[in-house]
Amino acid sequence: NRLSGQKARASAAFLTAQEYFVQAISLVTENDWLVKTSLVSGIYIEAAEVAGMNASYELMEDMLKVLEQHSDDVYIQLSARKIRIQACVAQNRSTDAVDVGVESLGIFKLHLPRHPDEEDVQTTLLETMQLLAGKSDEELADNHKKADAEARIALELLNDFSAAAFQNQPM
């Protein structure tokens, strides 16, 4: 069912894909969460994504809650949050998207002010300029290649909710 769901999704048959993923989920047992954690988590993530694409937000949220209850893997938790952010954006709930995004960045010990003022922005820009001072383009490119998985996920999260943040509170 998972493979059929993936094929349906790849051909933009999202309702059909959702049916296949729901069927796959119906076959998951509690033991599968212990023995096949990665596989089962992947099914739930794909199912939630497709449910979001179909605007089946209640189903999507139910799947994400089950996923979060069964997994304490930070990357799976962040995948669930990214799906939530995208669903909030799709529903024009920019405030909620920003709330989920800012909360999610806390996992990386990154703290953004929820309502930054001009001084916050100027201070952060100055700190960033000081960190980058004297670094060549090549050095920055090399550091980018070495960036760890957490930094990449944090940047993806920022990207996911940055438009919602601007829409919510333009400067």
Structural class: mainly alpha
Question: Can you count the helices?
Answer: 10
Distance between the termini: 47 Å
Q: Calculate Rg over CA atoms.
A: 19 Å
Helix proportion range: over 70%
**Proportion in β-strands:** under 5%
The succession of helices and strands, N to C, reads HHHHHHHHHH
What is the number of E strands?
0
The major sheet is characterized as: none
Overall mean pLDDT score? 87
Shape: elongated
Runs with pLDDT <50, length 5+?
none
Q: What brief labels describe this structure?
A:
78% helix, 171 residues, 10 helices
Protein described:
It is a single chain. By secondary structure, the protein is mainly α. 78% of the residues lie in helices and 0% in strands. It has 10 helices and no strands. Helix 1 (2-10) runs parallel beside helix 4 (37-53), helix 4 (37-53) packs antiparallel against helix 5 and helix 6 (74-90) packs antiparallel against helix 7 (94-105). It starts with a helix and ends with a helix.
Write the layout of secondary structure elements.
Layout: H1 2-10, H2 14-26, H3 30-35, H4 37-53, H5 57-70, H6 74-90, H7 94-105, H8 118-132, H9 137-146, H10 149-168
Helix pairs in contact: 1-2, 1-4, 2-4, 4-5, 4-6, 5-6, 6-7, 6-10, 7-10
